[in-house]
Design goal:
Largest sheet: 6 strands, parallel
Pathway: Nitrogen metabolism; urea cycle; L-ornithine and urea from L-arginine: step 1/1
Catalytic activity: L-arginine + H2O = urea + L-ornithine
Shape: globular
Strand order of the largest sheet: 1-6-5-2-3-4
Pfam families: Arginase
Number of strands: 6
Order of helices and strands: HEHEHHEHEHHEHEH
Structural class: alpha/beta
EC number: 3.5.3.1
Helix content: 25-40%
Family: Belongs to the arginase family.
Number of helices: 9
CATH topology: Arginase, Chain A
CATH superfamily: Ureohydrolase domain
């Protein structure tokens, strides 16, 4: 929690001086500090959590006890009372309402997490839904669900991508988003011009072969490039447009 306390403070400092910030993990436990700090600066916030896992376990429901499986439960208004003895109110007084959270890419959901998601009424698009309706429809439904006046925080776990393109991660799950699908999602979010905070987490260079690590890092870089302005269709700003002569 000490790391997240420091991150909460740093995010607020970054947003005082910059229009956007990027937090790179590490595991997805940093999602708590990153989003909590963002909420302190920008209380009217929407969160898009792109991940193979829901990361919404409570301490009482987690089979592993790993904090990186719990950060969303720390953040959510409807679950805050379950953590009333954890000191969260002191370091992160602002919470996220359930209707401003959307998950994309889930495919490894613990039974208790499935219960929480459905009992609380959290919007999530698991891979079976994505396969059925397609990424363009998922993007449309995600943007329709979020308050159009809110800034957006995108928390991207590299294991949202299929393990073929992101093998060097701690809890890889087959059957995930293709790299093209991941890029399409972040492009659509970027084009709202409302993305203020971004996390990229769970790239672990200690796992897998050199080729696995290179593949995973390259996938992460492609996601970040697209999030922060790179366009696959090309663009021609800041160039000498007179090179072909006058019309």
């Amino acid at each position: 929690m000490a790391c997240n306390r420091a991150l909460i403070e740093q995010v607020q400092l970054m947003l005082k001086e910059n229009s956007q910030f990027l937090a790179i993990g590490g595991d997805h436990a940093i999602g708590f500090g990153s989003v909590a700090g963002h909420l302190q600066h920008t209380p009217n916030l929407s969160l898009v959590w792109i991940d193979a896992h829901a990361d919404i376990n409570l301490h009482s429901t987690s089979q592993s006890g790993n904090i990186h499986g719990m950060p969303v439960s720390f953040l959510l208004e409807q679950l805050r009372t379950t953590w009333q003895h954890a000191g969260l109110q002191e370091i992160a007084p602002n919470c996220l309402p359930k209707d401003q959270l959307v998950y994309i890419g889930l495919r490894d959901i613990d039974p208790y997490e499935a219960f929480i998601l459905n009992k609380v009424g959290i919007r999530y698009y698991a891979m079976d839904t994505i396969d059925r309706v397609g990424v363009p429809k998922i993007i449309e439904m995600t943007l329709d669900a979020l308050d159009p006046q809110n800034k957006i925080h995108v928390s991207f776990d590299i294991d949202a991508l299929d393990s073929n393109v992101a093998p060097s991660t701690g809890t890889a799950v087959r059957g995930g988003l293709t790299l093209r699908e991941g890029i399409s999602i972040v492009e659509a979010l970027r084009d709202t011009k409302r993305v203020q905070g971004v996390d990229l987490v769970e790239i672990n260079p200690k796992l897998g072969s050199d080729r696995d690590v290179r593949t995973t890092v390259e996938s992460g870089l492609e996601i970040l490039k697209s999030m922060f302005g790179y366009r696959r269709s090309g663009k021609w700003s800041n160039i000498d447009t007179g090179i072909l002569g006058s019309d």
